């Protein structure tokens, strides 16, 4: 049976949907699963199940690795959003205060010019916020974001450790199962060989039977003469 036929046979067994999120690519999971199947070549359903546990754990390990990187970017973006919000609120308060003062002063030309200037600063603040998100972050900023999310990273490490243990356990069980099958096959072969040897050993010696049986060329008179010539005991 070829790899493709073997995989199609095992795929007929219903195990439920694979652990692929809507944000992940199912084709990548299928390709990884097919490559592992081709590499380990399961011989029966038990081996296929153990290999499936191995692939599932490996997929989740890769996911948690990505999440570790994404969490740093997420904390950095949140810091940028907070900084942009603070800048916007600061200029909005100054603009509101300037408008209140201008209204109290009956819109003197100098106050009106001040309000116009504050409006321009607010527009500049919006532009500065856009630049915050567009510019390339430094490693220092990413390091600070990592520090903010260090608790999440710790939980992520524990999850990864559990999946690594599950992956290694699946491979260990597969190895033990195959070693057990090999021992069973060896014992079965030895039993078959021993049974054949005993059957051959229990059969009578054909040469001895042939020496006791009279030959086709001997006549009854020859046999009688032979018996007469033998001395009495």
Helical stretch count?
8
List the uncertain runs. Answer: none
- Structural class of the secondary elements? mainly alpha
Strand content: under 5%
How far from one another are the termini? 74 Å
Q: Mean pLDDT, as a whole number?
A: 75
Largest sheet: none
Number of distinct beta strands: 0
> What shape does the CA trace take?
rod-shaped
Radius of gyration: 44 Å
Helix content: over 70%
What string, H for helix and E for strand, traces the elements in order?
HHHHHHHH
Features:
233 residues, mainly alpha, 8 helices
Explain what this protein looks like in three dimensions:
- With 233 residues, the protein is an all-alpha fold.
- It has a domain at 23-181.
- Helix content is 82%, strand content 0%.
- The chain has eight helices and no strands.
- Helix 2 (26-40) packs antiparallel against helix 3 (45-104), helix 3 (45-104) packs antiparallel against helix 4 (109-134) and helix 3 packs across helix 5 (139-148).
- The mean pLDDT is 75.
Question: Topology of this structure?
Answer:
Layout: H1 3-11, H2 26-40, H3 45-104, H4 109-134, H5 139-148, H6 150-202, H7 206-212, H8 220-229
Helix pairs in contact: 2-3, 3-4, 3-5, 3-6
Give a short summary of the structure:
This protein is mostly helical and 233 residues long. The chain has 8 helices and no strands.
């Amino acid at each position: 049976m070829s790899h493709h036929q073997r995989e199609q046979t095992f795929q007929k067994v219903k195990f439920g949907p694979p652990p692929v999120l809507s944000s992940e690519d199912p084709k990548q999971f299928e390709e990884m699963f097919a490559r592992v199947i081709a590499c380990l070549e399961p011989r029966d359903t038990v081996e296929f199940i153990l290999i499936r546990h191995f692939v599932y754990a490996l997929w989740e390990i890769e996911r948690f690795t990505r999440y570790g990187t994404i969490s740093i970017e997420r904390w950095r973006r949140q810091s940028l959003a907070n900084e942009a919000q603070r800048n916007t609120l600061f200029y909005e308060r100054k603009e509101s205060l300037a408008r209140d003062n201008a209204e109290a002063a009956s819109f003197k030309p100098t106050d009106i010019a001040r309000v116009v200037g504050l409006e321009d600063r607010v527009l500049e603040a919006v532009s500065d916020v856009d630049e915050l998100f567009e510019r390339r972050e430094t490693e220092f900023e990413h390091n600070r974001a990592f520090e903010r999310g260090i608790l999440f990273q710790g939980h992520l490490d524990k999850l990864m450790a559990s999946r690594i243990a599950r992956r290694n356990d699946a491979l260990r069980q597969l190895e033990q199962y195959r070693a057990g099958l090999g021992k069973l096959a060896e014992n079965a072969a030895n039993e078959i060989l021993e049974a054949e040897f005993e059957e051959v050993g229990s059969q009578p010696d054909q040469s001895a039977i042939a020496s006791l049986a009279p030959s086709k060329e001997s006549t009854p008179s020859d046999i009688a003469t032979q018996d007469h010539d033998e001395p009495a005991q």
